Amino acid sequence: MTLIIETPESMTKERNYILQTLLGEFLGLEWVHHPTSRQDIKITQSGNVAASISLPDVLFSTSENKWLDSASLPISSSPLWDTDDLGLDILLVKSVVPVIYGDQEPVSRNNGRNMYLPVDIFGSAFFMLTRYEELIVTDQDDHDRFPATASSAYQNNYLDRPIVDEYVEILWACISELWPDIIRKRRVPKKLISCDLDRPFDCSVATIKGVSRRLAKDIVRDKSPRQALDTILTSYHRWRHDYSSDEYLQAVDWIMDANEKVGNKVAFYFITKHSHHGYDGCYSMTQSVIRGLMRRIVNRGHEVGLHASYNSYRNLDQINCELGELKQALANESIAVDEIGSRQHYLRWSTAITPRYLDAAGVSYDSSLAYADRPGFRCGTCHSFRMYDLKSRKTLTLREKPLILMECSVLGEQYMGLGYSDDALQLMKSYRDVCEQFGGDFTLLWHNSHFESAKDREFYLQLIS
Ligand SMILES: [Zn+2]
Q1: How many angstroms is it from 163 CA to the middle of ligand 1?
Q2: Which of 96, 149, 220, 243 matches a 20 to 30 Å C-alpha distance to 102?
C-alpha cells in the first residue's frame, strides 16, 4: 500500500528529501510524490482515495528570491496548536505543539475520513533537520558557533522536545486512523555513548611550564601539599613515558568497564592532526600510548572515530588529512573498519560547508549537532538521518547522529552552570527518557577528562544505564 503525496510543483528536490526522510526512513512507508497545480499538500492512499490528510504548504512555497533569505524564516513567535482537537491518541511530549510553519491560528479538522492538520509538517521538519536558519541568522559565539539562544527552538521553548519526531507521530496517528492496515517500521531506542579524546592523558604535566602552573594551583589555590606531591610524581612518570597512573587514561578504561556492564558500545573520537596550537590535542597518533589505547578500544568491541580538529570545519584539505591519518593509524595496527564517523572539536559547524566537506571526505556519519551552550534537540530529532546540502541542493551520503547531551553544557559554568545539582541530573535524565520514549538514540558525550569528582561518575552511571 503506497501513500500518494500531492504537493505544489516547486522545490521538488527538497520535497523528495524530506518525504523520504519522514515517510521512508522514519516511518518505513512506501510513498510516491505527485507534483500538481494544487496550493496545499494532500495525502491519500493508492486504492483508497476517499480518505485524505491535507496540510498547508508554507516553506516550499517560498518564492525563489526569498529562499535561504530571512523573509523565509518562521515568524518569531510560533503559534501553538492543541492537538487534542484531533481526538486521536498521539505520542507527544505535550499535547500542545509549536507550529513552526503553518496556520497562524492553528485548529485541525477531522470528520473521520478527511483530516486537516494546521502545520506544514514537511517544511517545518526540513527547517529543523537541515538547520536552515543557521544559514541565515548570523549570530556567533566566541568560537564562531551558532548559539542555542539564537535558534527558533530555544526562543519558542521547543529545544527540549524532539519536535520533528512529534510531527511524525501526529502524521502517523492520522495515517493509522485512516488506513489501519498500514504498518510502520519499529524503532528500538539506543544509547549512543561517546567520548571526545581532547586529552587522552593529562597533558599539563608534560612540560616544565605546565608542571609549574599545576604546582601553583595545588599549593596556592587548593593549599594541598598532597596534591602537589601527586603532580610531581605524575610528572616524573610522564618523563619516563609511564602512563600507568594517568587519571585521564584510566578514565577511558573506566568508561569502557562501566558501559560494558550495561551492554553499551562507546565511540571514542581521536584528534589526529592539529589546526590550532592552543585548542587541539597534545598528542599524536604515532605515540605508542595512543596506538595501545586505540588497540584496547577496538579489542574490547568499542568504536574509534575522528575528532576533527578546531579549524577543520571549513577546510576540506584538513579533514582529508586528518581522516587519512586515522586510517593510517588503524592500518598500522591491522584494524579493519567498515566506516568512520566523526565529531567536530568544540562542536564547530558551518551549515553551508561542514556537512558537504565531511561527505566529500568519505566520513560515514557526523555526531556534532548539539548546541554547546544548551543540550537538547538542535535538529528536532533523536533519530539519525541523511544530511542535505542546502547550497548544492543535494541529499548527501553523510548521516547525522544528532548529539543530545554534552556533560559540560549542563554542568559547566560557561554554559548552563547547574553544577552537580539535583536539577542538573533530572534535566540530563529527562533527555535520555524522551529519546527512549520516541524509540530514538540518546547520544551522550562525556569527556574522559571530566571525571574529576565522584559526582561525575555517579551522574554518568545513572545516564548510561
Ligand atoms: Zn573536543
Answers
A1: 27
A2: 149
